[in-house]
Specification:
heterodimer, A: about 80 residues, B: about 525 residues, mainly alpha, globular
């Protein structure tokens, strides 16, 4: 979780991501941010994110991002 | 068959009549026959290209689906390790298949639309080595909506590959999706999963929906025929005849062109959406009051929405998730120590392809590529300087909800969009340069006479724009005008219908003085 929060802080400084459960729906993360985030997550957690994973439900909260990462780690 | 003509409206009326008369399970067949009649009437023998594209994606999707089914069937018999290996092998095969069939579908588009452009590049390079006209210029006729149906076809096969939809067994259903006549002329880019479910639903005749659709169609006709075409003649007069521009003249002409393009494109999309609604089929939203945008990013989320979504789904995401992107990411991290910049560069790299394709989709020319990259450069600069902008904003104590600042942002976006539109309107990059340089250095203002409209035109255009502006504000506040009309007594809706009908008939740019103006985006 901490590693993910560090990545998020790097991409969008000054935002408390733990308080939101509609990060994408509220436009806090743009497509550009998602691209940066995907690059960082793939690199840091060594997981393969698929296009079908790029849905708002997987990125709307820190918890949902973590769940997605854990699922992808299990698949690997 | 232009979508603003009586012939088209009569064709729609006849299709509608048959659609609601036949048994409901055959309604999709009526749409298919209507779509093919419409396509053949516009493209004649060129229809074979559309059929070929449909055949390619249909076959490709079926083969991919068979591979998917095979994996599901076989995985029960395999051990965990075997399953993993088989999955990887199967996935690789599917990836190769989707790439081959997508490339085949796109190859037809490239061969027809971009061959002269590519030939021109080869000739320019050959010219350096004194090899003149190595590749001859071909006079190629394009089938109706080739750029639209090709991209929609690709989205179909890719969605099957991604497992978002199951490949359709009946080729005629895929053909209906590809050739569906309301969206074939100038979009929007619909997704198969959104349309197919509606094609399969039986549709009863619904009086409220029917009259609501007529209001949408008439409003689209109003925007196209009363405003866009009327402005179009003034704008064409200016850009075709003025040799020396002035800053004021060029600014007015460019703003008028921006308004013309918006009224033309969004008006035609309204007609298309309204026609489709007559059959009970909702097409994707393509415009959401784009000129209320506070940034370029927001503008592109509101203007030609479905093109942006297509590029995001089928260019941006695949590039971002590719192995190549990972390598770029790792390379950048190794060589750029600034962490912010190290995450910015790979993302900027994948967005480059999106904007390059956006420009190229609009046309086979350097000008259109420059048009796409113009927005790309501005967005990247905006992204890089966001921390600085935020710091300045805080220093000046400007709050997020400051209305004056919001107005400044809207005007700034409008200004940037207008420069883009001038580039879009110019014949080539050199013309764009000539317009701008002449406008900056010519202080005489001799070009103003070209853009002073007739008194009658001025009144009609102004009143029309006020009406569209008021409706845009209402929509921006989240109010669905058609629902509001439905809640009123029926006479109120008919007053609106008659008002729009007579406005179009009495003030539309028809007749010998005007001729017939084709929809601007139909050329793509």
């Amino acid at each position: 979780m901490e590693k993910l929060l560090e990545i998020l802080a790097l991409i969008k400084p000054g935002v408390d991501f733990t308080k939101s459960d509609s990060i994408v729906d509220d436009g806090i993360l743009s497509s550009m941010d998602i691209a940066r985030l995907v690059g960082e997550i793939s690199d840091e957690f060594d997981v393969d994110i698929e296009v079908t994973d790029l849905v708002p439900e997987n990125f709307n909260s820190v918890d949902s991002m973590m769940k997605m990462i854990e699922r992808l780690e299990d698949e690997d | 068959m232009e979508i603003t003509t009586l012939v088209f409206l009569a064709f729609v009326g006849l299709s509608c009549l048959v659609y609601y008369v036949v048994p409901k399970k055959f309604q999709w067949c009526v749409l298919l026959v209507s779509s093919l009649v419409f396509f053949v009437s516009s493209s004649a023998l060129l229809t074979v290209y559309m059929l070929a594209t449909t055949g390619i994606v249909y076959t490709g999707a079926r083969i991919i689906q068979k591979n998917k089914d095979l994996f599901i069937e076989k995985k029960k018999e395999l051990t965990k390790e075997e399953k993993k290996n088989f999955k990887a092998k199967n996935k690789k095969k599917q990836k190769t298949l989707v790439a081959i069939f997508s490339v085949l579908a796109i190859a037809i588009l490239v061969a027809l639309k971009y061959c002269n452009f590519l030939g021109g590049i080869v000739n320019s390079v050959a010219g350096i080595f004194t090899l003149n006209h190595l590749i001859p210029e071909f006079n190629i006729l394009l089938p109706l909506g080739i750029s639209y149906y090709t991209l929609m076809s690709v989205s179909y096969i890719v969605d099957v590959y991604r497992g978002l939809i199951v490949a359709e067994k009946n080729p005629l259903r895929v053909l209906l999706y590809v050739s569906y006549f309301p969206h074939i002329v100038e979009g929007p880019f619909d997704r198969y999963k959104d349309l197919d479910v509606q094609f399969r639903t039986p549709h009863k005749f619904d009086y409220e929906r029917f009259t609501g659709s007529i209001v949408i169609i008439l409003f689209g006709l109003f925007k196209k025929l009363v405003i866009a075409d009327r402005i179009g003649f003034i704008v064409s007069d200016y850009f075709d005849n003025v040799t020396e521009t002035s800053l004021i003249g060029l600014s007015i002409a460019t703003i008028m062109y921006t308004i013309q393009l918006y009224m033309d494109f969004s008006g035609c999309i309204d007609i298309v959406a309204g026609v489709s609604e007559l059959f009970g089929i909702k097409v994707a939203e393509n415009f959401r009051q784009p000129f209320f945008s506070k940034s370029i990013n927001e503008f592109w989320r509101r203007w030609h929405i479905t093109l942006g979504l297509w590029l995001k789904e089928y260019v941006f995401y695949p590039v971002t998730l590719s192995g190549h992107f990972k390598k770029v990411n790792q390379f950048v991290k190794k060589h750029i120590k600034n962490v912010t910049l190290a995450t910015f560069v790979p993302a900027a790299y994948s967005l480059f392809f999106v904007w390059f394709c956006n420009g190229l989709w609009h046309g086979a020319s350097v000008k259109f590529i420059a048009y796409g990259l113009y927005y790309y450069v501005l967005m990247m600069l905006g992204e890089l300087f966001t921390p600085l902008f935020n710091k300045t904003k805080n220093k000046l104590h400007i709050k997020e909800d400051n209305k004056l600042f919001a107005l400044f942002q809207i005007l700034r976006t409008f200004f940037i969009v207008n420069i883009g539109m001038l580039l879009f309107r110019s014949v080539g990059l050199f013309d764009f340069y000539s317009y701008v340089s002449s406008a900056i250095f010519n202080l005489k203002g001799s070009d103003l006479s070209w853009i002073v409209p007739e008194h009658f035109d001025l009144v009609i255009i102004s009143l029309g724009l006020i009406l569209v502006f008021i409706i845009s504000i209402i929509k921006e506040r989240g109010i669905n005008i058609i629902e509001v009309l439905n809640r009123r007594i029926f006479i109120f809706k008919w007053i609106v219908v008659l008002f729009l009908l007579f406005s179009v008939l009495l003030t539309g740019a028809f007749g010998v003085d005007y001729g017939e103006a084709a929809a601007i985006y139909a050329q793509f």
